[in-house]
Amino acid sequence: MNLVQTDDYRESYANSCQVRVSVWDFQLVFGLASSETPEQVTIRNSQAIFLSPQQAKALWNVLGQNLAQYEQAFGTLNLEPHGHNFPEGPVN
Predict the structure, then answer these.
(1) pTM for this structure?
(2) Of the residues 3, 7, 59, 71, which has the maximum number of CB atoms within 10 A of its CB?
(3) Containing H/E element for 74?
């Protein structure tokens, strides 16, 4: 396999991913979520990627394998924060 990056290749960070599904494909919409107040969250979407259902399932498998390896090396990931030791103020 020879991996080549196109001229318009780019990398970016996302802390938000929305999944939209149709009969023909999956759409992953990546963005950056921020909050000025606890009641107001703004998500700035930056990129949408369309995948066939077969490619979405392959991605699911690869992510699952890599997350299992990550947790084995670094410990269990928790999706919900535990405890109340978070600083007050805007989330950046």
Answers:
(1) 0.75
(2) 59
(3) helix 53-74
One-letter amino acid for residue 91 of the chain:
V
pLDDT tens for each residue of the chain, 92 residues long: 999 999 999 999 999 999 999 999 999 999 999 998 888 999 999 999 999 999 999 999 999 999 999 999 999 998 876 655 555 555 54
CA-CA distance, 36 to 43, in Å (whole number)?
A: 12
Calculate Rg over the CA atoms of the chain. 17
